Amino acid sequence: MTKQRPIPSRTRASAPGVLTRERILDAASEMFAERGVEAVSLRELTVKAGVNLAAVHYHFGSKEGLLAEVFARSSKPIVKWRLDLLSAVDRDAAGRPYLEHVLEAFLRPSLQSGRRQNASFVQLRARLALERDDAVRQILSVAFDASSKRFIEAVAEAVPGLPREELYWRFHFLIGSMFYTMADSGRIQTLSGGECDPGDTDEALRRMVAVFADVFRSAVWQQSLAEVPTQPGGKESSVDS
Known about the structure:
The chain is mainly α. Helices cover 65% and strands 0% of the residues. The protein is built from 10 helices and no strands.
């Protein structure tokens, strides 16, 4: 009986095919990070990658499919790093994880991922965090929801008295602070006269862990907005951006 040859497929790409695929991913990661997804056309991308349009459609199907692969390629190491750190956190005598260790395990891989991989992904993540497109939100959800829920449960275990709704809000603020720090807009450098630099990820991490440990431990969650002090004349304080 003659042995059948395996049928070629996209999952069993030839060496040239693998190189083509990687060139497309590298070009897309850089261009999406610099200019945003919508601003980059597939034709521009193929010129930078040195491939034809058919290659993009063959390997990824569409720009959305390409973005999903770009994100998956770089997000998986971050998720693994996070979960490895989470599995190693110390616990107190009651068996609860130390909150600071949980927060560091969540934040460190995102803030320091630029040291381990192309820094353009850090910029891309910060850009996509502000997108309202449903397809982009789904890509983020697939990449991070499962691991983020693990961390939410770990924080709940570390701070058992915190109501669940309040926990979600505070985790939301943690994510926002993380993304703004990753984006490194230059605002804090300007305001501080250069004394503060989010590019110093060790310092940024140390301060974020300390601040958000206090945030999650705070017992104040029932104060109504009506009780927030206002400026003279009844105007609430403005927020700098």
